[in-house]
Amino acid sequence: MNEAMKKARDIITGYSGRPVRIMEVCGTHTHEIFRLGIRKLVPENVEIISGPGCPVCVTAVGFIDEACWLALEKDCVICTFGDLIKVPGTKLSLAGARAMGAAIKPVYSPLDAVEIAGQTPDRQVVFLAVGFETTTPSACLAVKKARELGLENFSVLTANKTMPNAYKALVGSADAFIYPGHVNAITGNAVCRQLCEEQGVSGVVAGFTASELLTALATAIRLLEKGEPFFRNCYPRVVKDEGNPGAIKLMNEVMEPCDSEWRGLGLIPMSGMKLREEFAPYDARLKFSMPKIEGKPNPACRCGEVLQGKCRPSDCKVFGKVCTPLHPVGACMVSDEGACSAYYQYAGLV
Amino acid sequence: MNNETVTLAHGAGGKQTSELIEKVFKAHFSNPEFTADDAAVLPKIDGRLAFTTDGFIVSPWEFNGGNIGKLSICGTVNDLSCMGAKPLYMTCGFVIEEGFKLDDLEKIAAAMEKTAKEVGVKIVAGDTKVAGKGQCDGVFITTTGVGVIRDGASTSGSNARPGDAVIVSGDVGRHGCTVLLARDDYGIDADVSSDCAPLWSTVESMLDVTDDIHVIRDATRGGVGTVLYEIAAQSDVGIALDQSAIPVDSAVKGVCGMLGLEPLYLACEGRLVIFAPADKADAIVAKLREGRYSQNAAVIGHVTEDNKGLVVLKTQIGTQTILPQPKGELLPRIC
Question: Does A318 touch chain B (CB under 8 A)?
Answer without folding.
Answer: no
